[in-house]
Structure formats: C-alpha cells, structure tokens
Design a protein that fits this description.
The complex is a heterodimer.
Chain A (H helix, E strand, L loop, with lengths): L3 H5 L8 E2 L2 E2 L1 E2 L10 H14 L9 H21 L6 E4 L2 H16 L5 E5 L8 H10 L2 E5 L9 H7 L4 E7 L11 H10 L3 E5 L11 H4 L3 E5 L10 E5 L1 H4 L12 E4 L4 E3 L13 H17 L1 H24 L4 E3 L11 E6 L4 H10 L2 E2 L1 E3 L4 H7 L4 E5 L6 H19 L1
Parallel strand pairs in A: 3-15, 5-6, 5-7, 7-8, 8-9
Antiparallel strand pairs in A: 1-2, 4-10, 9-10, 11-12, 13-14, 14-17, 16-17
Helix pairs in contact in A: 2-10, 3-10, 4-5, 11-14, 12-14
Chain B lengths: L13 H9 L11 E6 L6 E9 L2 E9 L3 H14 L4 H5 L3 H8 L5 H28 L1
Helix pairs in contact in B: 1-2, 2-5, 4-5
The chains are: A alpha/beta, B alpha+beta.
Chain lengths: ~400, ~140
C-alpha cells in the first residue's frame, strides 16, 4: 500500500474539516484533489510566465509557448504517443464531441450504425445520439453481462458491416469495470469501424499506452487525474488528423485567411481554435509528473488493495442487509477504485447526505449514466471512489457511515 | 481561508423522519382534476402531483414517484399546505414561501429536491389556467 499519511500532506484540501469532521474524500471519479505541485505550477505560470502562445514575438510569449508545448510532450509520453497527436481540449466530453462532429457528421449516412457500450457516461453517448439524429445513423448498444463484465458474444453479434464507429468507455464510472479495449478494437477493425475510447476513468488509474489499445481516438480529462479543471486531451491517430476537418474554427488554427476562406494550420493546432488553456496544460503536466513520481503501477496496486478491502467490507455489510446491491464485478483486479451500490427502500441522496454529516464525500444519483441504471432496473445509486491518497481507514469510515444511514433511514 | 464548514444539515431528526415515514399524501387519486409531472434537476428523479379542484379551491392533493427523503417530506408538506387554499393564493407562492412552509434547514443542492413538488404545483396550476382560458 502507498504511504497515504505522507501523501495526504501533499494535498492542502485534505486537511480540511467538513461538518466538523476530518474530510474523507471519496468522490474521485467525479474529480480528484490537487497536490501542492499542481497548484504551484498553475500559480507560477500566471505569476511569471503568462502570455498568449504561438503568436507573440516577445520573451514571455516564447516562454509560454515552450511551456505549453512541453506540456503536450509530457502528455504524449505518458500515453506512448507522439506530441503532434495530442490535442488539448476542455475535457473528455469536448474530445469526444470533436470526433463526433469532425468524423461522425462528415462520414455517416442513414443506415450506418454506431456501436456503443451500455455502460457509457453521457459524454460518450449524447454526442453520438446527436450524430445519429443529424445523419440518420442508428445507435446500437452492447450491455455488460450480469456481473458488469464485457459481453464479448453480445458485442460480436452487434458488430457488422453497418458498424462505422465503435465508441466505448475504457472503465465504467458506475460499475468500475475495466473493459478490454484492445480486444474490442481488434474486432472493430475487422469491419473497418473507427474506435473511439473514453479514457476519463482509466487514465488516472491504470497504465495506458495507446499502442496497446489500438484505438483511433482516446479522450480524457485532466481534473480526474490531479490536474486542473478545464483541460482535457484528445489523442487522435496521426492518419486521421490530416483528413478530419476542424470541429471549432477561428484564431490560432489558421494559416491564411482571406475574405471568403481560410486554410488550416498543421495538426494538432488545427484542432485548437482560440486561445488555449495554457495554465491548465501546465497544471496537467505537473499532475503527470506527480503521478510518475509515485508510479502509475503503484497507484494501480494501491487501488486494487483498497478495492479488495472495500469489496470484502461491503460483502460483510450486505450479509446483514439483504437490500444492499453492490454493482459491478466482485474481483478487484477487474475494476478501478470505486464501488456503486443501491439500497432498496433508501434513496441515494439521503445516504450521501448522512455520510456528508460525517465528513464523507461521495456521489449520489445516476452519475451521468442513466441508460445503464435503466438497464439495471434501479434508481439512483451511491458511488464511493478512491485514489492514491485514500486509506483503509477511509473505507472503514464509509462502511460505518452506511451502517448509520441504514439505521436512521430504515429504523 | 475556510478550514471548516459548520454543520448546517441536522436534517434526519425526529420531526423530519416522522413526516418521511408517514408518507402523508403519497398515493394516486381517483379522478383528479389535473396533474403534472416534474423532474428533479439535481438528480433526474420524477414525481407526479395530482390535484382535485372544486370552486377554485384545492380540495385534495396527492403525489407519487421516486424521490429522496427531502423531496418526499417537502411534497407531503406542500400538498398538505395546498389543501383548502384558493388557486389564486397558491399561484402567488414564491420559493421563499415554500422554504418557510417546509421549515427545515437545507443545503443549496438539496433545495432543488425540496422544490420539485412546488414546481409540479406551478405546472398544474398553469395547466388549469390554460384549460380555463380555452373554455372561455
């Protein structure tokens, strides 16, 4: 296990008291807290480096450009990609929208199909619904099996000549399940479909290398991996970058403009219209440095140990409470560091409010995955999600809080 | 710098829980005069409000649907309040009035849960108005 007592000291917010109690932050799948190094990188950028990038011929602009481009290199290295393949966006959602609009809208026709996971976050679902609405293409779902694992047979039965895009989340933000993107991509390639991966829930928690994933596009968010909000990444395979038209146009992405038309910069710049979020990119690079110092493999190990501990504690709790349903696989190695659960007769918001009174921050609701909840036949769920700074004591506090909630709400 | 929040939410206490458990006015109505559905913007939960109206007075009010304790308790209190009140009076209610009627200390997010029934009530009253306008 990681030394969480020491690690927690790197995160100023974790020193806080909430409702008079020590903060137990278990909402990492929504957003993670930021270490001092990330806060300092953003602060320093604005204090001594701030200028607009790429266009200025003065020293500050030059420095800002170098920092921005170095951040791009840092992200590229983290996922085994080339810097030119890294497009900075606001978040994973924007990255997926870019592919949906630039590729989906431009290439799909009536009768075509987009095959997506039944576990998708709305970010990797609603953009495709829009593409379908505008092109006449059809959205086809492959749902996980009853353990929440990938249903390979179902996926293959739905994949065919009509499938033009396969869009899947690498890890579910509700079930926690890690999906076999490389196998999915291998099958999808057989029918010539483009493979788009939502990596928002995997990049912070697992070693990810785009060469091993064999997908065409991978989107993720900085704020879920210790970086600032408002910075995201779309990795787009080189071969696609030239052929795709930009999603957003304007300043910063053009070569020449006359009264009637414009020509585009080389990728990735042609996909980054307007002044970019330079401090965000710098903060994300600092977050990646921090993750590297600890080691993504070590983080993964730590999360597996915490998940095993939590799954056992939840199983013990469920023995005395038949109405507690734990979602997703019971094998910690098959999931990321989160558990969502449903308590029959008890509303998720009430559980999270009672946990909040104990200083425990969790998320309740549909977690931007309403079709999955409908498929599972359940209402809102409570989700607790951990990261490198969480300890077994945090999980113990959570389980004890859930016991209290049960006593209060079902007494 | 804030290093601590005060405990504002001492919600799940006796009075609140007894209203929650009583489930007052929860259920379907036979032959309602009007009804309206409302989604909680905070989470996507949905409730249906039914009203029985006689001589521009709410004779009965009931609600159904999936909702949290805050939404349920608020719905029980708002439907109870609505009974015997004139449509004109109910149309004049503001969110502040509703929070006063509910009387519990709510966090910003949970205020959405408390307003679901009120929003359904506004919709239902609007519907009644439109129907009245169409008839005349």
């Amino acid at each position: 296990m990681l030394d969480t007592n020491t690690l927690k000291k790197d995160f100023p917010i974790l020193e806080m008291k909430v409702n008079g109690k020590d903060l137990v932050y278990l909402d990492n799948a929504a957003t993670t807290q930021k270490p001092e190094k990330v806060l300092a990188a953003v602060d320093t950028y604005y204090r001594i480096c701030n200028a607009n990038v790429h266009r200025g011929s003065h020293t500050l602009s030059d420095n800002a450009t170098s920092l921005y481009e170095r951040s791009r290199e840092s992200v590229a290295k983290f996922i085994g990609a080339k810097p030119t393949e890294i497009i900075f966006t606001r978040n994973a959602t924007e990255g997926i929208n870019l592919v949906a609009y630039s590729y989906g809208l431009a290439t799909l026709h009536a009768g075509d199909e987009i095959l997506i996971g039944g576990w998708e976050h709305h970010s990797n679902l609603v953009p495709w619904q829009e593409v379908c609405r505008k092109t006449g293409a059809r959205l086809v779902y492959t749902y996980p099996d009853n353990q929440g694992l990938f249903d390979f047979a179902d996926f293959c039965s739905k994949l065919g000549a009509r499938t033009k895009i396969v869009a899947v989340g690498h890890a579910s933000n509700v079930l926690g399940t890690i999906y076999p993107v490389a196998e999915i991509a291998a099958e999808a390639k057989k029918v010539g479909a483009l493979v788009v991966v939502d990596g928002a829930q995997s990049l912070p928690h697992l070693p990810v290398n785009i060469k091993q994933l064999s997908c065409d596009a991978l989107a993720f968010s900085g704020h879920k991996m210790l970086g600032p909000m408002g910075i995201g990444v779309l990795w787009l395979d080189e071969s696609l970058q030239e052929s795709l038209s930009p999603f957003l146009t304007g300043g910063g992405m053009v070569l020449e403009v006359d009264e009637n038309k414009a020509s585009w910069e080389k990728p990735p710049h042609k996909f980054e219209a307007g002044t970019p979020n330079v401090s965000g990119a710098v903060g994300l690079a600092a977050a990646i440095d921090y993750i590297k110092t600890i080691g993504i493999e070590e983080i993964r190990k730590h999360e597996i140990e915490l998940s095993s501990y939590a799954l056992q504690a939840f199983a013990d709790l469920a023995r005395g409470f038949q109405n507690l349903r734990i979602l997703g696989p019971m094998d910690a190695t098959k999931r990321t560091g989160l558990i969502s659960f449903h308590m029959q007769g008890v509303h998720a918001h009430d559980v999270s409010a009672i946990l909040d009174q104990r200083g425990i921050a969790v998320r309740s609701g549909y977690h931007c995955a309403m079709p999955l909840h409908t498929h599972l036949g359940i209402g809102p769920t409570v989700r607790a999600s951990w990261y490198l700074y969480n300890s077994q004591a945090d999980i113990t506090a959570l389980v004890s809080g859930i016991s209290d909630a049960k006593k209060i709400l079902l007494a | 710098m804030l290093d601590s929040f005060t405990m504002s939410d001492q919600l799940y206490r006796d009075e609140f829980m007894s209203i929650f458990k009583s489930g007052a006015n929860y259920g379907k109505m036979v032959d309602p005069s009007t009804s309206a559905e409302e989604v909680n913007k905070f989470c996507g939960d949905k409730i249906t409000l039914e009203l029985k109206i006689a001589n521009d007075i709410v004779a009965d009010a009931k609600y159904t649907g999936l909702s949290c304790a805050v939404s349920k308790v608020s719905s029980s209190l708002v439907t109870e309040y609505a009974k015997g009140k004139s449509l004109t009076h109910l149309k004049g209610l503001t969110e502040a009035d509703i929070f006063a009627i509910i009387g519990f200390d709510l966090t910003e997010n949970r205020k959405q849960c408390a307003l679901v029934c009120f929003n359904a009530l506004k919709k239902a009253l609007h519907k009644v108005n439109n129907e009245y306008d169409q008839r005349n």
